[in-house]
Write a structure and sequence with these properties.
38% of the residues are buried. The chain is 35% helix and 24% strand. Helix 5 links the parallel strand 1 and strand 2. The protein is α+β, with helices and mostly antiparallel strands. It has two domains: 84 residues, no CATH class; 235 residues, 4-Layer Sandwich (Deoxyribonuclease I, Chain A). Helix 7 packs parallel to helix 8. The strands form two sheets. It has a six-stranded mixed beta sheet with strand order 3-4-2-1-12-11, covered by helices on one side. Strands 5-6-7-8-10-9 form a six-stranded mixed beta sheet, covered by helices on one side.
């Protein structure tokens, strides 16, 4: 029995060392995404690298292998990258303590065009109390099912497609917010993209804001990886144009990238938006069929400075490969600038 136990431990030890070496190599190669598109993909499973390296450290401690402390180096690199999503966000002090506020609940769900459990998704959506619902991967069949079976939400606009490019906007049949739609457009980012994106301008109180339901291309080869970067650049430019026009901005959807990827961090910088995930931890969304430790967060909500996140959570499995994302934002109304013409006329009386 003792030789068998030793053989088992030897197998576990060798296997753990092998996977720890792979995780270490992937940790470092993930920084080389600019050299080859495949290395960029290695940025995403950093949570899993941490798990593998922690197991390797634990096995090394049990076997009293002091050299195994070397795994602290790649573990530390990954922890520095992934743990900041737990840090509380920096609040914009210019919003004003006494400024009027509104709360806004936004639900995003990638339904998966091949979802064989449509009733799961429809029951989940009906059970929510969101003010705005954006759905992705809407096919003609999905659209028909939604129109027939959704009771608490009404379809506002939809762009159904047989592929994964479809999307839809829903609003509650009994709204609880004085939310008014100003404009709805279908846009393409960049303009030669084949994926329609729903851009909706709303007004709430004295503030106008625009929400873009965003679905970014999944990086699968050199061409799609390059196009994904082009999409991120176009989205950042769109965000800047909206904000320069005096509008507040929300991006929500399937970004097909993790918050610790270099592309995501660059998007935050270039777009001038904040990550709603800040302070709420990992909240992994894909693959929904996997246990949480094996999933990665690729569904996101970014917002401009007038918004703060007051609640953020993932939903239950709705038969899709993605978990839904429900975000509650607080909208701080911007004080109107003084009308100097009125002030001058009053001073002359």
């Amino acid at each position: 029995m003792l030789p068998m136990i030793k053989s088992c431990w030897r197998f576990v030890n060798i296997s753990t060392i092998f996977f720890a070496i792979v995780a270490t190599a992937a940790t470092l190669l993930g920084f080389a995404g600019s050299f080859w598109w495949g290395f960029e993909l290695l940025e995403h499973p950093r949570l899993q690298y941490c798990e593998i390296l922690l197991i390797a450290l634990g096995i090394g401690r049990i076997l009293r292998q002091r050299w195994s402390l070397i795994w602290l180096f790649p573990l530390g690199i990954n922890l520095v990258i992934v743990l900041p999503v737990f840090l509380p966000p920096h609040h914009n002090q210019s919003l004003g303590i006494n400024a009027p506020t509104h709360t806004l609940r936004i639900l995003h769900a990638n339904l998966d065009r091949q979802n064989s459990h449509m009733n799961w998704a429809i029951e989940y959506i009906n059970s929510q109390t969101a003010d705005i619902v954006f759905l992705q991967e809407i096919t003609p069949l999905w659209l028909n099912q939604l129109q027939r079976n959704l009771q608490n939400y009404q379809l506002i606009t939809a762009e159904p497609r047989e592929n994964s490019h479809g999307s839809a906007l829903l609003l509650p049949t009994s709204p609880t917010q004085p939310l008014a739609i100003k404009e709805i457009h279908t846009i393409y980012l960049p303009d030669y993209s084949q994926r329609p994106l729903i851009e909706t301008a709303f007004s709430l109180g004295e503030t106008e804001f625009v929400i873009l339901s965003l679905h970014i291309t999944r990086s699968r080869n050199l061409g799609t990886s390059a196009f994904q970067q082009t999409e991120f650049n176009a989205v950042a430019n769109w965000s800047q144009i909206q904000q320069k026009a005096g509008k507040q901005v929300v991006l929500i959807g399937d970004f097909n990238t993790t918050p610790w990827s270099s592309r995501f961090r660059q998007l935050l910088k270039d777009s001038g938006l904040n990550n709603s995930q800040q302070g709420y931890g990992f909240q992994t969304t894909w693959l929904a069929s996997l246990p949480a430790p094996l999933r990665i967060p690729i569904d996101h909500c970014l917002q401009s400075q007038a918004f703060t996140t007051i609640s953020r959570k993932t939903g239950i499995n709705i038969g899709s490969d993605h978990l839904p994302l429900l975000v509650e934002l607080r909208l701080h109304e911007r004080p109107k600038p003084p009308d100097w013409n009125i002030a001058m006329r009053a001073s002359q009386l």
